[in-house]
Amino acid sequence: MNLSWDFFIMMFFVVMTVYGLLLGKSRVFGILLNTYAGFVIAQEGGEIVFNYIKRAASINGALSTSYFGAKLLTFTAVVFILTLKGELSGYEDRGMHSTVMTAIYGFLSAGLILSSVFAFMGETEKQHIISVSSLASQVADYRLVWLVAPIGAVIVAGFLRGKGNNPRNY
């Protein structure tokens, strides 16, 4: 079997969906929100991190990174720290609805994470990956979907949860 970007992207979606199911809805929902926060901070603050790393490299010569690397490092650090130390958890209900929503949140997290990483790449690197991977092309082409779909899923889940007979689901 020849490893490709398509295989990597497909496996990333599968792993994040299963990981979401293992963590539970409130935790994977927190990761989804943390991903949004990481994207915004990396997009806006990645240049600051890049300049800091560049200055540090010029002082000791041991560290070097690209603009993409600095944004990816910032994104990963923010998501990791918020996921470990953040308190973004809500109620925890059980049942098929919760399981399905957890899987959907995990899948959407994968799309949002990959879309964020593609946004940090330079145009040359992004075009290279897109040229060799049809899945990468779809992730990049549907960037707006990856940004908006999780919000839509949360809204739809809220309406569906409100239709339940048990008022303690809130």
Textual characterization of the structure:
The protein has one domain (26-86, 93-158). It is 81% helix and 0% strand. The protein contains 7 helices and no strands. Helix 1 packs across helix 4 (96-120), helix 2 crosses helix 3 and helix 5 (123-132) crosses helix 6. It starts with a helix and ends in an 8-residue tail after the last helix.
Q: Evaluate the radius of gyration.
A: 18 Å
Q: How many strand elements?
A: 0
Percent strand: under 5%
Number of domains: 1
Low-confidence stretches: none
Helix tally equals 7
Mean pLDDT: 81
Largest sheet: none
The succession of helices and strands, N to C, reads HHHHHHH
Helix fraction bin: over 70%
The chain-level structural class is mainly alpha
Spatial separation of the terminal alpha carbons: 47 Å
Net shape: globular
Please write out the topology.
Elements: H1 5-23, H2 25-60, H3 67-85, H4 96-120, H5 123-132, H6 134-141, H7 143-162
Quick overview:
The chain has helices spanning 5-23, 25-60, 67-85, 96-120, 123-132, 134-141, 143-162.
